[in-house]
Design brief:
Shape: globular
Distance between the termini: 59 Å
Order of helices and strands: HHHHEHHEHHHHEHHH
Radius of gyration: 22 Å
Strand order of the largest sheet: 1-3-2
Number of strands: 3
Length: about 450
């Protein structure tokens, strides 16, 4: 039974398979020919594998950066890392995680069908991580059986509907259309960055408008600018960590400067590959999704992983990473001064969430929006994990925790509500949220009907 559940979780948590199924179903519903279905399905799956592989290249190239940073600046504390904490948790919470993930995805489709919030969350790995975190929190507080699975599935569905919904006004501005949504675990940060951009960005030029002299016009090329930026960052932390440390612990004896240079270029290569993967996926999934939108969940949108927005503001990606990481460093010292758990800036979350926050901030507030939006994200993902730790039960004493905004906010909400009003009370609150979503939908429909009659 456990092997079957594991295989099922592995299947559902593989985004490329989910994307392939969505394209396949969408094209079948549109009655496309067999050759078109096969070609588009495979191209979409390959495209997402390219995105995954590229993200893996970026993650692997950033890992030694984090190690050198800790060594060079003599910092210790808790390092937020979604993959690490899920790996620890899945051993004890595998069964509820699998069931919550499965029924949560079904509930996502049902809620999208009956409400105005028509977002189908397709980032399978994020769904898995959310299901795992929800399982840990609910089980740690004593919830069991059908009550656990029902409440956890409902919580998962609500999170994966609300997160894309709050970002969609900014996604329309970024992409220029309303055909695709963003399904990632930093949704609250991204929406906040968009609002911050509105507040501070009046008159600020876009990050993509670089007025540079002809002599250094090559910096307009995103590959060149990203490579140079990462080379400088790597050289700084490598020198701080020391030649001996890098060559003994990281580079297998290769010169520490050469090793750092290679890691920086590897990062840039991963970024280029992501752009190619994004183009492949969007070219296939957007037309195919019309079949699902028209037949199963009318007017729905696929919510895809955060690299989907990177090609729209490539300079903002690097600006966001640097600004978010700076926010994390400042927060780290503040946490230490306050005597709280020190959250060491995780390079991976600061890159992906910081970069995406900057793209959102740039869409509404140009460079100022990008810088401040991602900087605030860096502070948020440093302080929120401290508040999340107490609700994770025995997992909260591990030397890692969930890193992203939506994990922390939803986890804190679930843990605190259950602590104050119990498991039954939490279930009632979640049902109440769905009822409110249905009522808002009904009110919106009535208003549209009245407006059309008056018009």
């Amino acid at each position: 039974m456990n092997e079957i559940l594991k295989a099922f979780v592995d299947f559902l948590s593989e985004p490329s398979i989910l994307i392939g199924i969505v394209v396949l179903v969408g094209l079948v519903l549109q009655k496309k020919s067999g050759d078109v279905i096969i070609k588009s399905t495979l191209k979409a799956m390959v495209g997402f594998v390219v995105i995954q592989a590229s993200a893996g290249i970026i993650t692997d190239s950033l890992a030694p950066f984090g190690t050198m940073f800790q060594q060079g600046f003599h910092i210790s504390g808790v390092i937020p890392n979604n993959e690490a904490v899920v790996a620890m948790a899945i051993k004890d919470y595998g069964t509820p995680t699998a069931l919550i993930m499965t029924f949560g995805m079904l509930a996502n489709i049902v809620i999208a069908r009956i409400t105005k919030y028509k977002y189908i969350f397709l980032s399978g790995h994020i769904t898995l991580y959310l299901a795992c975190m929800i399982s840990v929190i609910l089980v740690s507080s004593g919830m069991t059986g059908i009550h656990l699975i029902f409440t956890g599935s409902l919580a998962l569905a609500i999170i994966t509907i609300i997160s894309p919904a709050i970002q969609q006004p900014f996604m329309k501005k970024i992409t220029g259309n309303d055909s695709v949504a963003l399904g990632h675990s930093g949704g609250a940060s991204y929406a906040l960055a968009g609002y911050i951009g509105k507040l501070v960005g009046k008159g600020s030029k876009s990050t993509e408008e670089m007025n540079v002299p002809k002599s250094i016009g090559f910096l307009r090329d995103s590959v060149v600018s990203i490579s140079i930026t990462m080379v400088i960052l790597y050289f700084v932390v490598a020198i701080a960590a020391g030649k001996e440390f890098v060559e003994i612990n990281l580079s297998d004896g290769s010169n520490f400067i050469v090793y750092s240079f290679k890691q920086a270029l590897t990062f840039a290569a991963g970024f280029i590959l992501i752009q190619n993967g994004v183009r492949l996926v969007l070219n296939e999934i957007v037309p195919a999704f019309k079949g699902i939108s028209n037949k199963l969940v009318p007017n729905s949108r696929p919510a895809l992983d955060c690299p989907i927005v990177f090609p729209y503001a490539q300079n903002a990606v690097i600006i966001g990473f640097i600004s978010s990481f700076l926010g994390g460093i400042i927060s780290m010292f503040i946490l230490g001064a306050l005597g709280l758990v020190v959250i060491i800036p995780g390079v991976v979350p600061h890159f992906f969430l910081g970069a995406t926050s900057a793209v959102f901030g740039n869409s509404t507030g140009g460079r100022r929006g990008a810088i401040l939006g991602s900087f605030v994200n860096g502070i948020i993902i440093s302080f929120l994990p401290v508040a999340l730790l107490p609700v994770l039960g025995k997992l909260g004493i591990a030397n890692s925790t969930f890193s992203d905004t939506d994990f922390a906010l939803s986890g804190i909400f679930l843990g605190k509500v259950q602590r104050f009003i119990g498991g039954t009370g939490l279930t009632a609150v979640l049902i109440g949220i769905v009822i409110i979503m249905i009522l808002i939908t009904a009110i919106s429909k009535n208003k549209k009907s009245e407006d059309s009659i008056q018009g």
